[in-house]
Design goal:
Helices cover 63% and strands 9% of the residues. The protein has 315 residues and is an alpha/beta fold.
């Protein structure tokens, strides 16, 4: 028996009327909003009647709209287990194939992120970052990579960055106990949400720090303790969390911080370049490339000379 809402929709979408297809598309893309709409409100939003919404619910196997609404709310609260993700994804791929389907889904996530991120909150978050005495960045499990990425680049610009990627309560609070109103805390979490992220943000808020949430929805549990909310879509891709849009948002944060402190950052990176060059951190530095070109040129010349000698011998 098919129990998951998105799978029910996928299996029956070819039989839907035009109005029902509009309902289905809206639920697939905005179930976090639809979950708290009445049947009348959902109908008004997508341009169909309330009765069409009710019929849609029964068409996909629910005993009325309240059961459909409950299914959407359960998706938000618990999100999807790994098994459910595989079930939904396999029915969504279709004839276009995995590569095209996943890339197109990620493109859509970036587009929706552009539309949904609050530009004022973004600007305020950047201001908090550049003026903070200390910058705390929290991300665990799949979002630990995002926290590390953001922390790496901010760490090149500033000397006050703390990256927290542990799920241990003790270790988290040991790393945060100095946080104060002079600091900023950036919490990153997406479905299924980290309870430790929620707790850490609450702790930071109590201590008076500016709190920035990078998450997927205004009904994310991170929002309650956030001063500034940055929305980045991360809808599932099978058992993999799609972090394309969140990473793009983080790239924008880094670039905005650079532009806010341009003169200082330029000076910092000039010093870094000197260190990188003196310590031969990167391959293909100008002097290394010159030496490689000389070697290659010598090898070519030797090869040509050998060829001429061989041709002379043959004659």
């Amino acid at each position: 028996m098919v129990t998951h809402l998105l799978t029910r929709i996928d299996l029956q979408k070819n039989n839907f009327s035009k109005g029902q297809k509009r309902i289905a598309s809206y639920i697939e893309e905005h179930y976090d909003k639809a979950a708290f709409m009445t049947a009348a409100k959902l109908g008004e939003t997508v341009g169909v009647s309330e009765s069409t919404v009710v019929r849609f619910a029964t068409e996909i196997g629910y005993d009325g709209y309240p059961k459909l609404q409950k299914a959407m709310q359960e998706m938000i609260r618990d999100k999807l287990t790994s098994v459910q993700r595989i079930e939904v994804t396999s029915s969504r791929i279709g004839e276009e194939g995995v590569l095209t389907s996943i890339l197109n889904q990620d493109i859509d996530k970036i587009r929706r992120t552009i539309e949904e991120t609050d530009h004022k909150d973004f600007e305020n978050a950047v201001n908090s970052i550049v003026k903070a005495k200390r910058i705390y960045i929290f991300g665990v499990r799949s979002t630990a990579s995002l926290a590390q990425f953001l922390g790496y680049y901010l760490g090149l610009m500033f000397d006050n960055v703390r990256i927290i990627t542990t799920t241990s309560h003790n270790q988290t609070y040991e790393q945060m106990f100095r946080i104060s109103e002079d600091d900023v805390f950036i919490g990153i979490s997406f479905p299924r949400y980290s309870s430790m992220a929620v707790d850490a943000m609450h702790f930071a808020r109590e201590r008076g720090a500016d709190v920035v949430a990078i998450t997927d929805s205004m009904i994310s549990p991170l929002v309650a303790n956030a001063d500034y909310v940055l929305i980045a879509r991360s809808d599932m891709a099978s058992i993999v969390d799609s972090l394309v849009a969140p990473l793009s948002l983080i790239n924008a944060l880094i670039v905005a911080a650079v532009l806010k402190r341009k003169d200082e950052v330029v000076e910092t990176f000039q010093k870094l370049e000197e260190v990188w060059n003196s310590q031969e951190i990167y391959a293909n530095r100008p002097d290394v490339m010159k030496k490689e070109l000389e070697i290659n040129s010598t090898e070519v010349s030797d090869s040509e000379n050998n060829s001429e000698i061989n041709n002379a011998d043959e004659k």
